[in-house]
TrEMBL record:
Listed Pro residues bias regions: 51-70
Name this polypeptide is given: DUF2339 domain-containing protein
Keywords: Membrane, Transmembrane, Transmembrane helix
Originating organism: Candidatus Zymogenus saltonus
Statement: the UniProt record of this protein carries the keyword Cell membrane: no
Biased amino acid composition, Basic and acidic residues: 39-50
Region described as Disordered: 31-78
UniProt cross-references to InterPro entries, sorted A to Z: DUF2339_TM
TM region positions: 94-114, 126-143, 155-175, 181-197, 204-221, 227-246, 251-270, 282-302, 309-330, 336-355, 367-384, 390-407, 414-432, 452-470, 491-512, 542-562, 569-588, 594-614
Amino-acid biosynthesis keyword on record: no
Amino acid sequence: MNDDKEERGKLTLIFEELKAIRGEITKLDARVNSLEGRPAPEIKREELRPEPSPPPPPGGPEMKMPPPEIKTPKRKGAEKIEKGSLEAKIGGKWLNRIGVVAVVIGMAFFVKYAFDNDWIGETGRVILGIIVGLALIGWGEFLKKKYKYYSQGVVGGGVAILYVSIFAAAGYYSIISQTGASFLIVLITIFSIMLSVRYDASAIAALGFIGGFLNPLILHHGDLEQLPTLAYLVLLDLGILVLAYFKNWKYLNFFAFVATVIIFGIWAGQSYNPKTDVESTQLFLTIFFLIFASLAFFYNIVHRTKTTLFDLGLVLATAFTFFGTSYFNLKEHYKEFMGLFAGFMGAVYFGMGLLTHWRNYGDRRLILTFLSAALTFLVLMIPIQLDKNWVTIGWAVEAAALTWIGIRLNSTGMRIAGVGLLTFTIGRLFIFDFPGIDIGDPSFYPFLNDRFFTALFVSIILFFVALLYYSKGRSYSSVIDPKERKTMSTILFIAANVLLIVTLSVESYDLFESKIVAMGPWPAEHNPAYADRLSALQYAQMLSLSGIWAVYSIILVILGFIRKHTPSRIFAIALFGITIFKVFIIDLSGLEQVYRIVSFIGLGVILLSVSFLYTRYKDKIIEAVVGDGTEDEE
C-alpha cells in the first residue's frame, strides 16, 4: 500500500512538471511568432489530470512523504531569442522605415523622369501622387492587424507622398492656389494625427507635422504675410495640443515649439511693422503662449503622471520666450504697463501651480517649477515697473512670500531662494538706498525719509521671516529639520537687529550732521559761538550712538527674559560689549567732562540693571539651557 502511494505521488509531480513545461513552450512560441510578425497558432490544451488516489484504508497509518524538489527546466533558447530581438527590430522595423523613405524618393525621381519625357501632364502627376499616397495608407490599414510595425511605415510613406503631391501642385505647377494648398495641408495633418493615434505611432504624427510646418516655407514665395502665416501656425499647434490629450510624445511638443518660433521669427524679420502690427502680433503671441503653456503639462495633468525634465524645460522655454517677445513687441507703445505685464505672468504661473497642486499633487517638481517661474516674473516686475526704494520694498515682500511657500511646501530650494533674495535686497538697500540721501537738502528730515522707512520695512520683513522659521517651523516640525529651523531663525533674527541698529545709528548721526551742515562753513574769523555750537553738536552726536545702543540692548534683554529667547539675550550682551568699548575708548578721550559723566553713569546704571536681571533669573536660565533644554521651544 505504501508503494502505491509513493508511485501516485511521483505521477502527480510528473503531471505538474509537464503542465509547467507546456506553459513555458506556449509563451516562447508566442514570443517567437510576435518577433516574426505573424500571429501565434492556437494550441488546444488538454487538461492533464492525474488519477485520483483511492482513500486510505481505515485505521491504516498515513504515510507523509516530503515534497520532492521540483527543478525548473532551464530555457536554453532564451539567450538566442534575446539576441534575435535586435535582429528582428532591425529587419522588421528599421528596414521598413528606410524602405518607405526609398519609395518616397523613388516617386520623386519618377515624377521628374516623367516630366522630362512628357509621359504625364502636370495634373496627372499630382493625381498619381495622391492615388499612390492613399493606396499606401489603405494597404497599411489592411496590414495593421497582422503586421503592426510594417503597416506603420507604409502609412507614414503614404502621408509623406500626399504632402509631396500637394506641395508640387501649388508650389511648382500652380494647379491650386496657396490658400487651397494650405487648407489641404491642414486636412492631411489632421488625418495624420488620427492615424498616429489609431496606430499608436509617433512617426506618422511626426511626418504630418513636419509637412505641416514646411508648408509656409515651401509654398510661399517672397515675404510671409501675418494673418495667413500666424493663423496657420495656430491651427498646427492646436493639432499638437489635441494630440497631447491622447499621447505623451514629448519630442513632438518640442519640435512644434521650435518650428513655431523659427517661422514666427522669419515672418517678423520679413514683414513685422512696429507701427501697425503690435496689437495683432500680441494676440497671436498670447494664443501661442496659451497653447504651449498648456502643452507642457497637459498630458500629465489629465492622466495624473509626473513630469520629466523635458516637460519642465518646455514650461520654462515657453514662459520666457513669450515674455521676451512680448516685451520687445509692446515696450515702445505700452512701456508704463510692462511691469504689470510681468506681474500678470507671475499670477498666471502661480495659478498653474495651484491647479497642479489640486489636480496632480504628487508632481511636486512641476508645482515648484510653476512657482519658481511665478516668482521670477514677480521679481522682474519690481524693477521694470518701479524705481528707487520701491524696488527694495518689492523684493523684500517677494522674499518673504517665497520663504513662506518654501516652509509650507517643505521645499528647501524655495527657502534658499527666499533667503537669497533677502540677501540681494539688503545689498541693494546699502548700495543704492543708503547713499542716495542728501543731508544738506532742506527737505531732508531724519527718521522721516525714504531711506529710514525702507530700511525699517526690510528689518520688519527680516523679523517676519525669522518668525516664520521659528513658529511655522515648529508647526511643521515633522517636516523641517529642527537644526535648519533654529539656525535660520537665529541668523535672520541677528540680521534684522543689525540692520535696525545700523539704521537707527545712521539716522541719529545724520540728525546732528544735518544741523552741522546747516550752520554753514567755518567762518573766516574766529567765532567762539560757532565753535561752541559745533562742539556741542558733535558731542551730542557721539553720545546719541551710545545711548541708542544701550537702550536697544536693554529692550532686547527684557524681551529675551520674557520670551525665554536666548539669541535676544546673547545679541544684547554683544551690543553691550560694543557700547562699553565705545564709552571707555572713544567717549573717554573725545567727550567733554559733562558728556563723560552722563555717558559713564548712564552706562553703569544700565549694566547694573542687566546684571541684576541675570543674577535674579540665573537658576532658571541654567535650568532651561543646560537642564532640559526647553528654552526657546515654548
